[in-house]
Amino acid sequence: MSTEEQELNLRRRLSGLSRLPLLRGARVSGEADRLQRQLDRLQDESTDEEIWRSVELARHAERPYTLDYVTRLLDDWVELHGDRGRADDGALVTGIGKLDGRTIVLAGHQKGRDVKERLDRQFGMAYPEGYLKAMRVMEIAERFGFPFVSLVDTPGAYPGVAAEQHGQGGAIARAQSAMARLTVPTVACIIGEGGSGGAVAIAVADRVLMQENAIYSVITPEGCAAILWRDAGEAKKAAAAFKPDALHCLDLGVIDAVVPEPEGGAHVDHAAAAALLGAAIAESLAELEDVPGEELRRRRRAKFRGMGVFA
Amino acid sequence: MSEARIDIQVEHRHAPAGADREHPNTCPKCGSHYRDDELASTLQVCPQCGHHFPMHARARIEWYADEGSFIEESAGVRSDDPLAFFDLRPYAERLVEAELNTGLGEAIVVGQATIDGHAVELAIMDFAFMGGSMGSAVGEKFSRACDSAVERATPLIAVTSSGGARMQEGILSLMQLPKTVCAVEDLHEARLPMFVVMAHPTTAGVLASFASLGDVTLAEPGALIAFTGPRVVQQTTREKLPEDFGLAEQNLRFGHLDAIVPRSEQRDYLVRLLRLFAGVGV
Asked: Which residues of A touch B84 (CB under 8 A)?
C-alpha cells in the first residue's frame, strides 16, 4: 500500500471514529486526537525508528503486566489456578473479578518482574496447560453469562520438548475455537508483546484492542531476521518490514482500536495506563452488552473470516 | 539427531541447493535413488524403506479422487503484497518464482470431488509452494473450501504440509489462524466432519489452527508435526531432544493423532470414514 493510500485509509478511519458511539466523550476525542497525530506523523513518513521504539517499549522491563492491571482495575479478584489435568501454568493467569461493578472472567499472560519470577512464569510463554486453563475459565464465562476479557503479553508459546509433547499446537488451535464458540461478550487487549500463535490463542474476541506501544506479530523480529536475513541481529530491519506496531495493525483491520498510553509509555505511570485501559475495556463491553449471544458469535466469526488481503 | 529430520522452520526458506544437499529423488533414510517415474509409480514412497517423499497436491488429488471427478475451486485466488515486503528479495518476486516452479497459484489446492462415489470437499496443501506457508490466500481458499462443503453438505478432507504462517504477510498471516479456525467452526456447526491427514511437515501456524481441529486426524509415517521445530527448541532451551522428537510416531504416543496411515492405505482409510459419516449434516 502506498503512503497516499495509507493516509486515505487513516482519514477514512478518523472520520468513521467520530461517528462511532464508542468514541463519544472526552476519551474518545482523545483517541481521535491521537489518530490525527498519527496521521500527521504518517505524512512525514512513519520511520523504522518509530516501529523499533514500539518494540522496545512493548518489552520494557517496567511495563505493567496483567496482574498490575488486575489489581488496579478489578474488585473482588479471585485468581483461579490449574488446568484440572496436569499443571498450573504461571505464564497465563486466570480469574474472576468485578470491573465497574460487573463480574467478568479474565485470562492474561504474565511475565515475571524479577529473575526468579521470570523463570517461574517462563517469561510469559505458556505451555499447553496455560491454554487449557484459559479454556476452563472461558467455560465459566459461558455458563454464567460473564463477559470474557483477555490481556495478551507474550513473546510466544513456550518452545520446549514437554510443551510439544503436551500438544502445544493443538492447545492453541482449540483455545481459538473455544473463543469462536462463546456467546458472551469478549474483549482482548494486546498490552505488550502479542507474539504469534501464543498470543492469538486468547485474542479471538469481539473487540480486539491494542495499547499504543504494544506490538502484535506473526513472529518475533529476531526470529524473522534469523530466518529471512539469516541473522538475528537484523531484528530492526525485520520489524520495519513486517510492521508490528499498533497503527499498522489498525490500518490492516487486525485490531478495532488503539488504547492510548500515558506520555512516554505505559511504564512511566502504571496507574494512568490502567485507567486508560480500564476505560477502553469498559467502553467496548458496554457496546457489546445489548447484542444477543448468537449474533455476537456470528459477527465475531464473520470479522475474523474477513481478515486478509489477497488478489 | 537423525539426518532425516528437517527443521523446516529454518531450512525451507529458499535455501540454495548446496553441494551437501541430497538429490530430491535420493531417499534420505536409506540412500536409495530413484527415477521420477519410479517414485510416481509408488505414490512417492521409497520401496526399500518406506520413507514418504513429499507428494504434490495435484498428484495427491489424482490419487484420492475418483477419476475425472475433481472440480477445482477458488483457483484464481492469489496472494497480494499488502506490506510491500522486502527481505533479501521482494515478496512479489518470490511469489512469481513459486508459481513458475510449481505451476500452482498458491500453497493449497481446493475443490470438490468424489472418493469411491462419496461427495467430498478437498483442501490439499503443497509444500513446494513457499514451504506450504499460510498467508491470506491460503487462509481464504481453505475458508471457502469449508463454505463449499457446507453448501453441498459434504465432509471436508484436508491434507496439511506447511512450515507455518507466511512471514512476508506479517500480522495478516497470523490472522489466518483464527480465520481458518472460524471457518472450521462454521463447518462443524453444520454438523459436517473434517478429516485431516498431516503430511511432512505440519508445523507452527497451520498445526496451531485448522490442522488440529479434525474430527479424525491421521498422519503420514515420519512426518514432523510440531508447533516449534526441533532446531528452534534446541536453540532456545538447550534441552536434549528425544530421538523421535516431533515426529508422527511420538505424536501418536502422546495422544495427538488417531492413526499413522501409510500413503498406500490412506484412500481406503478415508473411504471407510466417509462410509461411517455418510448422511450426516443438515
From this structure: 1
Going from the C-alpha of B49 to that of each of B31, B34, B44, B221, B250, the distances in angstroms are: 10, 13, 12, 11, 19
CATH of B55-276 among 3.30.1330.20, 3.90.226.10, 3.90.10.10, 3.40.50.2000: 3.90.226.10
Q: DSSP secondary-structure letter at B209? A: T
Query: Which region among A13-22, A196-205, B21-30, B199-208 has the lowest average model confidence (pLDDT)?
Result: A13-22
pLDDT at A231 over 90: no
**One-letter amino acid identity for A17?**
L
What predicted TM-score, i.e. pTM, was given to this entire model? 0.90
Whether cis (ω within 30° of 0) applies to the bond prior to B201 is: yes
Taking each helix axis from N to C end, the angle separating A128-144 and A168-181, rounded to the nearest 10 degrees, works out to: 10
Helix axes A66-73, A270-288, angle to 10 degrees: 70
Question: Range of A105's domain?
Answer: 46-289
The answer to whether the CB atoms of A243 and B178 lie below 8 A apart is no
Q: Which residues of chain A make contact with B183, given a CB cutoff of 8 A?
A: 305
Contact flag B210-A307 (C-beta cutoff 8 Å): no
* Closest Cβ–Cβ partner in B176, B186, B236 for A308: B176
Rounded to 5°, the CA angle A79-A271-A243 comes to 90
Q: Which residues in chain B have their CB less than 8 angstroms from residue A299's CB?
A: none
**What CATH number is attached to the domain comprising A77?**
3.90.226.10
Where residue A226 falls among pLDDT bands split at 50, 70, 90? Answer: confident
Dist. CA B84–CA B161, nearest whole Å: 26
Distance from CA of A97 to the nearest CA of B (A): 27
Q: How many Cβ atoms from other residues are within 10 Å of residue A165's Cβ?
A: 19
Scan residues 100-129 of B and list those with Cβ closer than 8 Å to A: none
Q: Determine the Cα–Cα distance for residues B152 and B120; give it in Å rounded to an integer.
A: 9
Q: Which range has the worst mean pLDDT, A14-28, A255-269, B194-208?
A: A14-28
> Which of A51, A176, A208 is most worth mutating to test chain B (most B CB atoms within 10 A of its CB)?
A176
